[in-house]
Amino acid sequence: MRLFFAMAYPAGLVDLIDDLYQQGVNEAVICPGSRNAPIMLALVRHGGFRCYSIADERSAGFFGLGLALKSKKPVILCCTSGSAGLNFAPAVVEAFFQEVPLIVLTADRPAEWIGQWDGQTIYQNQLYGKHVKHFESFEAFKPHQLVQQAIHFPQGPVHMNIPIAEPFYPAKGEELPVRTSLVASQPVDQVFTWDKSLLNDIKDQKIMITVGQRPYDKVENELFEQLALKGIPVIGDATANLPAACELHHDLLLANEALWPNYQADFHLHFGKSFVSKRIKQMMRMFKPTKSYLIHPNPIERPDPFQSLTDVIQTDTVSVLKELVSKDLQANPSFKTWNPSIQPAFFEKQAWNELHIYNAIIQQISQQEVDIHVGNSLAIRYINWTEAKLHGTEVFSNRGTSGIDGSLSTAVGASQSTDKLTVALLGDVSFQYDRNALWNYYLGSNLRIIVMNNAGGAIFQILDGAKDLAELSEFMVTKQHITAENTAKDAGLTYLKAQNFNELNSILPDFFAPGAIGKLLEIFTDSTENTAALQAYMALFKH
Protein backbone atom coordinates (compact mmCIF):
# COMPACT_ATOMS: atom_id res chain seq x y z
CA MET A 1 0.00 0.00 0.00
CA ARG A 2 1.23 3.51 -0.80
CA LEU A 3 2.18 5.80 2.05
CA PHE A 4 0.57 9.22 2.37
CA PHE A 5 2.84 11.89 3.81
CA ALA A 6 1.79 15.09 5.60
CA MET A 7 2.27 17.13 2.46
CA ALA A 8 0.15 18.16 -0.50
CA TYR A 9 1.34 15.44 -2.86
CA PRO A 10 0.59 11.77 -2.10
CA ALA A 11 3.61 9.56 -2.69
CA GLY A 12 3.63 8.33 -6.27
CA LEU A 13 1.28 11.00 -7.63
CA VAL A 14 4.04 12.89 -9.43
CA ASP A 15 5.26 9.61 -10.93
CA LEU A 16 1.77 8.84 -12.20
CA ILE A 17 1.34 12.25 -13.83
CA ASP A 18 4.77 12.09 -15.45
CA ASP A 19 4.03 8.54 -16.67
CA LEU A 20 1.00 9.88 -18.49
CA TYR A 21 3.03 12.68 -20.04
CA GLN A 22 5.89 10.37 -21.07
CA GLN A 23 3.37 8.21 -22.94
CA GLY A 24 2.03 11.08 -25.03
CA VAL A 25 -0.81 12.50 -22.91
CA ASN A 26 -0.60 16.29 -22.86
CA GLU A 27 -4.11 17.67 -22.26
CA ALA A 28 -6.11 17.75 -19.04
CA VAL A 29 -9.54 19.09 -18.14
CA ILE A 30 -9.62 20.03 -14.47
CA CYS A 31 -12.73 20.75 -12.41
CA PRO A 32 -12.17 22.99 -9.36
CA GLY A 33 -12.22 21.42 -5.90
CA SER A 34 -10.20 20.95 -2.71
CA ARG A 35 -9.74 17.20 -2.54
CA ASN A 36 -8.29 17.09 -6.07
CA ALA A 37 -5.99 20.10 -5.54
CA PRO A 38 -2.86 17.91 -5.36
CA ILE A 39 -3.74 16.29 -8.71
CA MET A 40 -4.43 19.71 -10.20
CA LEU A 41 -1.12 21.06 -8.95
CA ALA A 42 0.81 18.03 -10.21
CA LEU A 43 -0.73 18.53 -13.67
CA VAL A 44 -0.39 22.31 -13.89
CA ARG A 45 3.10 22.54 -12.37
CA HIS A 46 4.40 19.66 -14.44
CA GLY A 47 4.70 22.02 -17.40
CA GLY A 48 3.97 19.46 -20.08
CA PHE A 49 0.17 19.64 -20.06
CA ARG A 50 -2.26 22.07 -21.62
CA CYS A 51 -4.77 22.38 -18.79
CA TYR A 52 -8.37 23.63 -19.02
CA SER A 53 -10.48 24.68 -16.03
CA ILE A 54 -14.17 23.80 -16.43
CA ALA A 55 -16.48 24.24 -13.43
CA ASP A 56 -19.36 21.98 -14.49
CA GLU A 57 -18.21 18.35 -14.42
CA ARG A 58 -20.85 17.16 -16.90
CA SER A 59 -19.81 19.80 -19.42
CA ALA A 60 -16.13 19.19 -18.62
CA GLY A 61 -16.46 15.51 -19.43
CA PHE A 62 -17.84 16.25 -22.88
CA PHE A 63 -15.31 19.04 -23.40
CA GLY A 64 -12.59 16.44 -22.83
CA LEU A 65 -14.38 14.06 -25.18
CA GLY A 66 -14.26 16.74 -27.89
CA LEU A 67 -10.54 17.27 -27.30
CA ALA A 68 -9.86 13.55 -27.64
CA LEU A 69 -12.06 13.18 -30.73
CA LYS A 70 -10.08 15.87 -32.51
CA SER A 71 -6.57 15.03 -31.28
CA LYS A 72 -7.00 11.21 -31.45
CA LYS A 73 -5.03 11.10 -28.16
CA PRO A 74 -6.04 10.38 -24.55
CA VAL A 75 -7.26 13.34 -22.49
CA ILE A 76 -7.27 13.52 -18.67
CA LEU A 77 -10.42 14.41 -16.72
CA CYS A 78 -9.80 15.40 -13.10
CA CYS A 79 -12.34 16.16 -10.37
CA THR A 80 -12.85 16.28 -6.64
CA SER A 81 -14.62 13.65 -4.52
CA GLY A 82 -18.34 12.95 -4.16
CA SER A 83 -20.93 13.55 -6.83
CA ALA A 84 -18.39 15.34 -9.06
CA GLY A 85 -17.22 12.03 -10.52
CA LEU A 86 -20.80 10.94 -11.13
CA ASN A 87 -21.29 14.04 -13.25
CA PHE A 88 -18.53 12.79 -15.57
CA ALA A 89 -20.60 9.64 -16.20
CA PRO A 90 -22.56 10.73 -19.32
CA ALA A 91 -19.32 11.65 -21.11
CA VAL A 92 -17.54 8.52 -19.87
CA VAL A 93 -20.35 6.31 -21.19
CA GLU A 94 -20.34 8.15 -24.52
CA ALA A 95 -16.57 7.68 -24.76
CA PHE A 96 -16.94 3.98 -23.97
CA PHE A 97 -19.35 3.31 -26.83
CA GLN A 98 -17.57 5.65 -29.27
CA GLU A 99 -14.23 4.08 -28.23
CA VAL A 100 -12.56 7.37 -27.33
CA PRO A 101 -9.62 7.36 -24.88
CA LEU A 102 -10.28 9.34 -21.68
CA ILE A 103 -8.25 9.02 -18.48
CA VAL A 104 -10.48 9.84 -15.52
CA LEU A 105 -8.74 10.76 -12.25
CA THR A 106 -11.16 11.17 -9.34
CA ALA A 107 -9.96 12.37 -5.94
CA ASP A 108 -11.41 10.51 -2.94
CA ARG A 109 -11.40 10.35 0.84
CA PRO A 110 -8.97 7.84 2.38
CA ALA A 111 -10.52 4.39 2.80
CA GLU A 112 -11.17 4.77 6.54
CA TRP A 113 -13.58 7.64 5.88
CA ILE A 114 -15.74 5.87 3.31
CA GLY A 115 -19.21 5.11 4.68
CA GLN A 116 -18.68 7.31 7.78
CA TRP A 117 -21.04 10.17 6.86
CA ASP A 118 -18.05 12.33 6.09
CA GLY A 119 -18.69 15.23 3.73
CA GLN A 120 -18.56 14.81 -0.03
CA THR A 121 -18.05 11.06 0.24
CA ILE A 122 -19.59 8.33 -1.91
CA TYR A 123 -18.44 4.88 -3.09
CA GLN A 124 -16.04 5.78 -5.90
CA ASN A 125 -14.23 2.53 -6.59
CA GLN A 126 -15.69 1.00 -9.76
CA LEU A 127 -17.79 4.16 -10.07
CA TYR A 128 -18.52 3.67 -13.79
CA GLY A 129 -19.01 -0.11 -13.70
CA LYS A 130 -18.78 -1.75 -17.11
CA HIS A 131 -18.57 1.62 -18.86
CA VAL A 132 -14.81 1.92 -18.51
CA LYS A 133 -12.28 -0.43 -20.04
CA HIS A 134 -10.18 -0.54 -16.91
CA PHE A 135 -10.35 0.61 -13.28
CA GLU A 136 -7.68 0.69 -10.62
CA SER A 137 -7.19 2.30 -7.27
CA PHE A 138 -4.17 4.53 -6.82
CA GLU A 139 -2.80 2.52 -3.91
CA ALA A 140 -2.02 -0.40 -6.20
CA PHE A 141 -1.55 1.14 -9.63
CA LYS A 142 0.80 -0.41 -12.13
CA PRO A 143 2.97 1.96 -14.13
CA HIS A 144 1.90 2.55 -17.74
CA GLN A 145 -1.36 0.61 -17.32
CA LEU A 146 -3.76 3.52 -17.72
CA VAL A 147 -2.48 4.82 -21.04
CA GLN A 148 -2.02 1.41 -22.61
CA GLN A 149 -5.53 0.34 -21.60
CA ALA A 150 -6.94 3.59 -23.01
CA ILE A 151 -5.26 3.44 -26.41
CA HIS A 152 -5.12 -0.27 -27.19
CA PHE A 153 -8.04 -1.46 -29.29
CA PRO A 154 -10.76 -1.13 -28.44
CA GLN A 155 -9.85 2.34 -27.24
CA GLY A 156 -11.93 3.82 -24.46
CA PRO A 157 -12.08 5.48 -21.03
CA VAL A 158 -10.15 4.27 -18.01
CA HIS A 159 -10.59 5.32 -14.38
CA MET A 160 -8.26 5.72 -11.42
CA ASN A 161 -9.56 6.64 -7.98
CA ILE A 162 -7.00 8.51 -5.85
CA PRO A 163 -7.50 8.72 -2.06
CA ILE A 164 -6.02 11.95 -0.74
CA ALA A 165 -5.58 12.93 2.92
CA GLU A 166 -5.17 16.46 4.22
CA PRO A 167 -3.34 18.77 3.82
CA PHE A 168 -4.42 19.38 0.23
CA TYR A 169 -2.30 22.46 -0.38
CA PRO A 170 1.48 22.77 -0.37
CA ALA A 171 3.19 24.89 2.22
CA LYS A 172 4.57 28.20 1.05
CA GLY A 173 7.65 27.48 -1.01
CA GLU A 174 7.00 23.73 -1.20
CA GLU A 175 8.17 22.42 -4.56
CA LEU A 176 6.67 19.72 -6.72
CA PRO A 177 8.49 16.51 -5.72
CA VAL A 178 10.72 14.80 -8.25
CA ARG A 179 9.59 11.42 -9.52
CA THR A 180 10.97 8.43 -7.65
CA SER A 181 10.41 5.59 -10.15
CA LEU A 182 11.72 4.77 -13.62
CA VAL A 183 10.47 6.76 -16.61
CA ALA A 184 7.49 5.13 -18.27
CA SER A 185 8.00 2.94 -21.31
CA GLN A 186 6.21 3.79 -24.53
CA PRO A 187 3.14 1.75 -25.50
CA VAL A 188 3.80 -1.02 -28.00
CA ASP A 189 1.96 -0.78 -31.32
CA GLN A 190 -0.60 -3.51 -31.89
CA VAL A 191 -0.21 -5.75 -34.93
CA PHE A 192 -3.26 -7.48 -36.37
CA THR A 193 -3.41 -10.53 -38.61
CA TRP A 194 -6.44 -12.14 -40.20
CA ASP A 195 -7.43 -15.04 -42.43
CA LYS A 196 -7.69 -13.62 -45.95
CA SER A 197 -9.20 -16.87 -47.19
CA LEU A 198 -12.52 -15.65 -45.72
CA LEU A 199 -12.84 -13.54 -48.87
CA ASN A 200 -11.95 -16.29 -51.33
CA ASP A 201 -15.51 -17.14 -52.32
CA ILE A 202 -17.03 -13.69 -52.83
CA LYS A 203 -16.33 -13.19 -56.55
CA ASP A 204 -19.83 -14.17 -57.68
CA GLN A 205 -21.64 -13.10 -54.51
CA LYS A 206 -24.07 -10.23 -54.09
CA ILE A 207 -21.96 -8.01 -51.82
CA MET A 208 -23.06 -5.18 -49.56
CA ILE A 209 -20.84 -3.00 -47.36
CA THR A 210 -22.25 -0.96 -44.48
CA VAL A 211 -20.26 1.70 -42.65
CA GLY A 212 -21.27 2.98 -39.23
CA GLN A 213 -19.96 5.98 -37.36
CA ARG A 214 -16.23 6.48 -37.88
CA PRO A 215 -13.70 9.31 -38.07
CA TYR A 216 -12.82 10.70 -41.48
CA ASP A 217 -9.87 8.76 -42.92
CA LYS A 218 -8.44 9.71 -46.31
CA VAL A 219 -6.78 6.35 -47.04
CA GLU A 220 -9.87 4.35 -46.10
CA ASN A 221 -12.10 6.67 -48.12
CA GLU A 222 -10.03 6.21 -51.28
CA LEU A 223 -10.54 2.46 -50.95
CA PHE A 224 -14.27 2.76 -50.17
CA GLU A 225 -14.59 4.95 -53.25
CA GLN A 226 -12.86 2.38 -55.46
CA LEU A 227 -15.31 -0.28 -54.29
CA ALA A 228 -18.28 2.01 -54.89
CA LEU A 229 -17.08 2.77 -58.42
CA LYS A 230 -16.92 -0.99 -59.04
CA GLY A 231 -20.64 -1.13 -58.33
CA ILE A 232 -20.47 -2.43 -54.75
CA PRO A 233 -23.01 -0.69 -52.48
CA VAL A 234 -21.13 1.15 -49.71
CA ILE A 235 -23.84 2.41 -47.37
CA GLY A 236 -23.39 4.84 -44.49
CA ASP A 237 -25.00 7.70 -42.63
CA ALA A 238 -23.46 11.16 -42.51
CA THR A 239 -21.57 10.06 -39.39
CA ALA A 240 -19.67 7.48 -41.48
CA ASN A 241 -17.76 10.34 -43.20
CA LEU A 242 -17.73 8.54 -46.55
CA PRO A 243 -16.82 10.06 -49.96
CA ALA A 244 -19.50 11.27 -52.38
CA ALA A 245 -19.25 8.16 -54.57
CA CYS A 246 -20.75 6.16 -51.70
CA GLU A 247 -23.85 8.34 -51.38
CA LEU A 248 -26.88 6.10 -51.95
CA HIS A 249 -29.52 7.96 -49.91
CA HIS A 250 -30.23 4.61 -48.29
CA ASP A 251 -32.51 5.91 -45.54
CA LEU A 252 -34.86 7.46 -48.10
CA LEU A 253 -34.57 4.55 -50.51
CA LEU A 254 -35.57 2.14 -47.75
CA ALA A 255 -38.74 4.11 -47.00
CA ASN A 256 -40.38 1.87 -49.61
CA GLU A 257 -40.50 -1.42 -47.73
CA ALA A 258 -41.74 -3.28 -50.79
CA LEU A 259 -38.21 -2.99 -52.21
CA TRP A 260 -36.49 -4.57 -49.20
CA PRO A 261 -36.26 -8.12 -50.62
CA ASN A 262 -34.24 -6.71 -53.56
CA TYR A 263 -31.47 -5.57 -51.20
CA GLN A 264 -30.74 -8.88 -49.50
CA ALA A 265 -27.01 -9.61 -49.77
CA ASP A 266 -25.07 -12.87 -49.96
CA PHE A 267 -21.96 -11.39 -48.35
CA HIS A 268 -22.04 -8.43 -45.96
CA LEU A 269 -19.16 -6.54 -44.35
CA HIS A 270 -19.65 -3.88 -41.68
CA PHE A 271 -17.04 -1.26 -40.80
CA GLY A 272 -17.26 1.41 -38.10
CA LYS A 273 -19.78 1.50 -35.28
CA SER A 274 -23.48 2.31 -35.02
CA PHE A 275 -25.99 3.58 -37.58
CA VAL A 276 -28.37 6.48 -37.12
CA SER A 277 -30.75 4.96 -39.66
CA LYS A 278 -33.23 2.54 -38.18
CA ARG A 279 -34.46 1.32 -41.57
CA ILE A 280 -31.18 -0.29 -42.68
CA LYS A 281 -31.12 -2.31 -39.46
CA GLN A 282 -34.76 -3.34 -39.80
CA MET A 283 -34.31 -4.36 -43.42
CA MET A 284 -31.24 -6.48 -42.74
CA ARG A 285 -32.81 -8.15 -39.72
CA MET A 286 -35.69 -9.21 -41.94
CA PHE A 287 -33.63 -10.12 -45.03
CA LYS A 288 -30.46 -11.51 -43.53
CA PRO A 289 -27.28 -11.90 -45.58
CA THR A 290 -25.90 -15.42 -45.92
CA LYS A 291 -22.62 -14.30 -44.34
CA SER A 292 -22.06 -11.16 -42.29
CA TYR A 293 -18.74 -9.98 -40.87
CA LEU A 294 -17.82 -7.12 -38.55
CA ILE A 295 -14.38 -5.63 -39.26
CA HIS A 296 -12.85 -4.43 -35.98
CA PRO A 297 -9.39 -4.90 -34.40
CA ASN A 298 -10.80 -5.98 -31.04
CA PRO A 299 -14.42 -5.11 -30.18
CA ILE A 300 -15.37 -4.76 -26.54
CA GLU A 301 -18.17 -7.24 -27.11
CA ARG A 302 -19.58 -8.86 -30.28
CA PRO A 303 -22.07 -6.21 -31.41
CA ASP A 304 -24.63 -7.55 -33.86
CA PRO A 305 -27.05 -4.72 -34.73
CA PHE A 306 -28.21 -6.55 -37.87
CA GLN A 307 -28.81 -9.82 -35.97
CA SER A 308 -26.92 -11.76 -38.62
CA LEU A 309 -23.28 -11.79 -37.48
CA THR A 310 -21.23 -14.70 -38.80
CA ASP A 311 -17.99 -13.63 -37.13
CA VAL A 312 -15.65 -10.74 -36.30
CA ILE A 313 -12.61 -10.23 -38.51
CA GLN A 314 -10.18 -8.81 -35.99
CA THR A 315 -8.00 -6.49 -37.99
CA ASP A 316 -7.77 -2.92 -39.28
CA THR A 317 -10.07 -1.52 -41.94
CA VAL A 318 -7.41 -0.74 -44.55
CA SER A 319 -6.07 -4.30 -44.83
CA VAL A 320 -9.55 -5.71 -45.55
CA LEU A 321 -10.41 -2.93 -48.01
CA LYS A 322 -7.16 -3.45 -49.92
CA GLU A 323 -7.93 -7.14 -50.22
CA LEU A 324 -11.44 -6.39 -51.49
CA VAL A 325 -10.21 -3.84 -54.04
CA SER A 326 -7.72 -6.36 -55.41
CA LYS A 327 -10.49 -8.85 -56.25
CA ASP A 328 -12.65 -9.11 -59.34
CA LEU A 329 -16.01 -8.45 -57.69
CA GLN A 330 -19.47 -8.66 -59.19
CA ALA A 331 -21.35 -5.36 -59.21
CA ASN A 332 -24.51 -5.24 -57.08
CA PRO A 333 -26.88 -2.76 -58.77
CA SER A 334 -29.84 -3.32 -56.43
CA PHE A 335 -29.35 -0.08 -54.49
CA LYS A 336 -29.48 1.99 -57.68
CA THR A 337 -33.30 1.90 -57.68
CA TRP A 338 -33.63 5.63 -57.16
CA ASN A 339 -35.64 8.44 -58.73
CA PRO A 340 -33.08 11.25 -58.96
CA SER A 341 -35.71 13.91 -59.66
CA ILE A 342 -37.50 13.72 -56.30
CA GLN A 343 -35.07 15.75 -54.22
CA PRO A 344 -34.32 18.55 -56.73
CA ALA A 345 -38.04 19.01 -57.35
CA PHE A 346 -38.81 19.18 -53.64
CA PHE A 347 -36.01 21.60 -52.71
CA GLU A 348 -36.25 23.78 -55.82
CA LYS A 349 -38.74 26.19 -54.22
CA GLN A 350 -37.70 27.11 -50.70
CA ALA A 351 -40.32 27.04 -47.95
CA TRP A 352 -39.64 28.15 -44.38
CA ASN A 353 -39.46 24.79 -42.61
CA GLU A 354 -36.60 22.84 -41.06
CA LEU A 355 -36.13 20.43 -43.95
CA HIS A 356 -35.51 23.26 -46.42
CA ILE A 357 -33.48 25.22 -43.87
CA TYR A 358 -31.20 22.28 -43.11
CA ASN A 359 -30.69 21.77 -46.84
CA ALA A 360 -29.70 25.42 -47.30
CA ILE A 361 -27.36 25.38 -44.28
CA ILE A 362 -25.67 22.16 -45.38
CA GLN A 363 -25.10 23.65 -48.84
CA GLN A 364 -23.31 26.56 -47.17
CA ILE A 365 -21.32 24.39 -44.75
CA SER A 366 -20.17 22.06 -47.53
CA GLN A 367 -18.45 25.06 -49.15
CA GLN A 368 -16.53 25.96 -45.96
CA GLU A 369 -13.40 24.52 -44.37
CA VAL A 370 -15.11 23.37 -41.18
CA ASP A 371 -15.77 20.54 -38.75
CA ILE A 372 -19.41 20.01 -37.80
CA HIS A 373 -20.81 18.61 -34.56
CA VAL A 374 -24.42 17.59 -34.99
CA GLY A 375 -26.88 17.20 -32.13
CA ASN A 376 -29.08 14.17 -31.68
CA SER A 377 -32.82 13.64 -32.22
CA LEU A 378 -33.93 15.39 -35.43
CA ALA A 379 -30.70 17.26 -36.21
CA ILE A 380 -28.63 14.17 -37.06
CA ARG A 381 -31.51 12.70 -39.05
CA TYR A 382 -32.12 15.78 -41.15
CA ILE A 383 -28.60 15.73 -42.53
CA ASN A 384 -29.22 12.17 -43.75
CA TRP A 385 -32.46 13.20 -45.51
CA THR A 386 -31.52 16.42 -47.28
CA GLU A 387 -30.31 16.68 -50.86
CA ALA A 388 -27.19 18.64 -49.85
CA LYS A 389 -24.42 16.52 -48.28
CA LEU A 390 -21.25 17.02 -46.24
CA HIS A 391 -18.67 14.81 -47.93
CA GLY A 392 -15.87 17.37 -47.62
CA THR A 393 -16.67 18.16 -43.98
CA GLU A 394 -15.90 15.86 -41.07
CA VAL A 395 -19.10 15.07 -39.18
CA PHE A 396 -19.04 14.41 -35.43
CA SER A 397 -22.01 13.39 -33.30
CA ASN A 398 -22.44 11.83 -29.86
CA ARG A 399 -23.97 8.64 -31.21
CA GLY A 400 -22.33 6.30 -28.71
CA THR A 401 -25.36 6.66 -26.45
CA SER A 402 -27.32 9.05 -28.71
CA GLY A 403 -28.23 11.38 -25.84
CA ILE A 404 -28.87 15.09 -26.24
CA ASP A 405 -26.57 16.05 -23.35
CA GLY A 406 -23.10 17.33 -24.06
CA SER A 407 -23.32 17.95 -27.82
CA LEU A 408 -22.33 21.61 -27.46
CA SER A 409 -19.64 20.93 -24.84
CA THR A 410 -18.09 18.35 -27.17
CA ALA A 411 -17.97 20.90 -29.98
CA VAL A 412 -16.41 23.54 -27.74
CA GLY A 413 -13.75 21.06 -26.63
CA ALA A 414 -12.96 19.99 -30.17
CA SER A 415 -12.66 23.62 -31.29
CA GLN A 416 -9.58 24.00 -29.09
CA SER A 417 -7.52 21.70 -31.31
CA THR A 418 -8.13 23.25 -34.72
CA ASP A 419 -7.97 26.57 -36.53
CA LYS A 420 -10.86 25.51 -38.77
CA LEU A 421 -14.36 26.72 -38.01
CA THR A 422 -16.13 24.34 -35.63
CA VAL A 423 -19.88 24.36 -36.23
CA ALA A 424 -22.34 23.00 -33.65
CA LEU A 425 -25.74 22.30 -35.26
CA LEU A 426 -28.31 21.69 -32.52
CA GLY A 427 -31.97 21.72 -31.64
CA ASP A 428 -33.19 24.15 -29.00
CA VAL A 429 -33.64 21.51 -26.29
CA SER A 430 -30.12 20.15 -26.82
CA PHE A 431 -28.75 23.68 -26.62
CA GLN A 432 -30.66 24.67 -23.47
CA TYR A 433 -29.76 21.37 -21.81
CA ASP A 434 -26.06 22.06 -22.35
CA ARG A 435 -25.85 25.84 -21.86
CA ASN A 436 -23.01 25.37 -19.39
CA ALA A 437 -20.86 24.48 -22.40
CA LEU A 438 -20.49 28.25 -22.77
CA TRP A 439 -19.62 28.79 -19.09
CA ASN A 440 -15.84 28.85 -19.53
CA TYR A 441 -13.00 30.91 -20.95
CA TYR A 442 -12.31 28.78 -24.02
CA LEU A 443 -14.84 30.05 -26.56
CA GLY A 444 -12.60 30.73 -29.53
CA SER A 445 -13.27 32.91 -32.55
CA ASN A 446 -13.59 29.73 -34.66
CA LEU A 447 -16.74 28.59 -32.79
CA ARG A 448 -20.04 28.74 -34.70
CA ILE A 449 -23.31 27.59 -33.13
CA ILE A 450 -26.60 27.10 -34.98
CA VAL A 451 -29.68 26.62 -32.79
CA MET A 452 -32.85 25.39 -34.51
CA ASN A 453 -35.58 26.78 -32.24
CA ASN A 454 -38.94 25.12 -32.80
CA ALA A 455 -39.98 25.57 -29.14
CA GLY A 456 -39.53 21.98 -27.99
CA GLY A 457 -38.47 18.41 -28.72
CA ALA A 458 -40.23 18.11 -32.08
CA ILE A 459 -38.98 14.61 -32.91
CA PHE A 460 -41.81 13.16 -30.82
CA GLN A 461 -44.34 14.71 -33.18
CA ILE A 462 -43.23 12.41 -36.00
CA LEU A 463 -42.83 9.16 -34.05
CA ASP A 464 -45.56 6.62 -34.63
CA GLY A 465 -47.36 5.98 -31.36
CA ALA A 466 -45.98 9.03 -29.60
CA LYS A 467 -47.53 11.64 -31.91
CA ASP A 468 -51.10 10.67 -30.98
CA LEU A 469 -50.69 10.71 -27.19
CA ALA A 470 -52.75 13.21 -25.21
CA GLU A 471 -49.68 13.79 -23.01
CA LEU A 472 -47.41 14.54 -25.98
CA SER A 473 -47.18 18.32 -25.65
CA GLU A 474 -46.55 18.59 -21.93
CA PHE A 475 -44.50 15.52 -21.13
CA MET A 476 -42.64 14.62 -24.34
CA VAL A 477 -42.30 17.66 -26.58
CA THR A 478 -41.78 19.70 -23.38
CA LYS A 479 -42.57 23.01 -25.03
CA GLN A 480 -40.22 25.84 -24.10
CA HIS A 481 -40.06 29.52 -25.01
CA ILE A 482 -36.50 30.40 -24.02
CA THR A 483 -34.26 31.84 -26.71
CA ALA A 484 -30.48 31.62 -26.93
CA GLU A 485 -29.96 35.39 -27.05
CA ASN A 486 -29.12 36.06 -23.41
CA THR A 487 -26.93 32.97 -23.16
CA ALA A 488 -24.98 34.06 -26.23
CA LYS A 489 -24.50 37.58 -24.87
CA ASP A 490 -23.47 36.30 -21.43
CA ALA A 491 -20.85 34.15 -23.15
CA GLY A 492 -19.53 37.03 -25.24
CA LEU A 493 -20.70 35.58 -28.56
CA THR A 494 -22.16 37.51 -31.47
CA TYR A 495 -25.89 36.73 -31.60
CA LEU A 496 -27.73 36.49 -34.92
CA LYS A 497 -31.26 35.32 -35.67
CA ALA A 498 -33.37 34.43 -38.70
CA GLN A 499 -37.13 34.00 -39.10
CA ASN A 500 -37.34 33.70 -42.90
CA PHE A 501 -35.13 32.92 -45.88
CA ASN A 502 -34.44 36.56 -46.70
CA GLU A 503 -32.91 37.01 -43.26
CA LEU A 504 -31.11 33.66 -43.33
CA ASN A 505 -29.59 34.20 -46.78
CA SER A 506 -28.29 37.63 -45.77
CA ILE A 507 -26.89 36.37 -42.45
CA LEU A 508 -25.09 33.17 -43.50
CA PRO A 509 -22.12 34.82 -45.29
CA ASP A 510 -21.37 36.93 -42.20
CA PHE A 511 -21.95 33.98 -39.90
CA PHE A 512 -19.25 31.92 -41.60
CA ALA A 513 -16.88 34.84 -42.14
CA PRO A 514 -13.85 35.16 -39.83
CA GLY A 515 -14.38 37.29 -36.75
CA ALA A 516 -12.77 38.28 -33.48
CA ILE A 517 -15.28 36.29 -31.42
CA GLY A 518 -17.49 33.24 -31.86
CA LYS A 519 -21.01 33.51 -33.28
CA LEU A 520 -24.40 32.00 -32.52
CA LEU A 521 -27.22 31.89 -35.05
CA GLU A 522 -30.73 31.08 -33.81
CA ILE A 523 -33.29 30.03 -36.41
CA PHE A 524 -36.98 30.16 -35.47
CA THR A 525 -39.52 27.84 -37.09
CA ASP A 526 -43.01 26.52 -36.50
CA SER A 527 -43.07 22.93 -35.29
CA THR A 528 -46.39 22.08 -36.96
CA GLU A 529 -45.19 23.29 -40.35
CA ASN A 530 -41.92 21.38 -39.92
CA THR A 531 -43.79 18.15 -39.25
CA ALA A 532 -46.14 18.60 -42.21
CA ALA A 533 -43.25 19.28 -44.60
CA LEU A 534 -41.29 16.27 -43.39
CA GLN A 535 -44.30 13.93 -43.69
CA ALA A 536 -45.00 15.17 -47.23
CA TYR A 537 -41.34 14.66 -48.16
CA MET A 538 -41.15 11.13 -46.78
CA ALA A 539 -44.36 10.17 -48.57
CA LEU A 540 -42.60 10.79 -51.90
CA PHE A 541 -40.26 7.85 -51.28
CA LYS A 542 -42.78 5.25 -50.12
CA HIS A 543 -44.06 4.24 -53.55
Describe this structure in words.
Residues 16-122 form the Thiamine pyrophosphate enzyme N-terminal TPP-binding domain. The chain contains 19 helices and 17 strands. Strand 12 (370-374), helix 13 and strand 13 (394-396) form a beta-alpha-beta unit. It folds into three domains: 13-163, 3-Layer(aba) Sandwich (Rossmann fold), CATH 3.40.50.970; 200-326, TPP-binding domain (Rossmann fold), CATH 3.40.50.1220; 342-537, Rossmann fold. A six-stranded parallel sheet has the order 2-1-3-4-6-5, sandwiched between helices. Helix 3 (57-71) packs parallel to helix 5 (89-98) and helix 3 (57-71) crosses helix 14. It has helices spanning 13-22, 37-46, 57-71, 83-87, 89-98, 145-151, 218-229, 250-253, 278-286, 317-325, 342-347, 354-365, 378-385, 407-415, 428-433, 472-477, 485-490, 501-512, 527-539; strands at residues 27-30, 50-53, 75-79, 102-108, 134-137, 158-163, 207-211, 234-236, 267-271, 291-295, 311-313, 370-374, 394-396, 421-427, 447-453, 494-498, 519-524.
> Helix tally?
19
| Total number of beta strands | 17
- Measured between the Cα atoms of the first and last residue, the distance is 69 Å
Number of domains: 3
CATH topology of the largest domain: Rossmann fold
* Derived structural class: alpha/beta
Q: What proportion of the residues form beta strands (DSSP E)?
A: 15-25%
Task: Return the CATH class of the largest domain.
Answer: Alpha Beta
Average pLDDT taken over every residue:
90
CATH architecture assignment of the largest domain: 3-Layer(aba) Sandwich
Largest sheet: 6 strands, parallel
| Radius of gyration, in angstroms, nearest whole number | 25 Å
Helical coverage, percent range:
25-40%
Residue windows where pLDDT falls under 50 for at least 5 positions = 1-6
Shape: globular
The CATH homologous superfamily of the largest domain corresponds to Thiamin diphosphate (ThDP)-binding fold, Pyr/PP domains
The order of strands across the largest sheet is 2-1-3-4-6-5
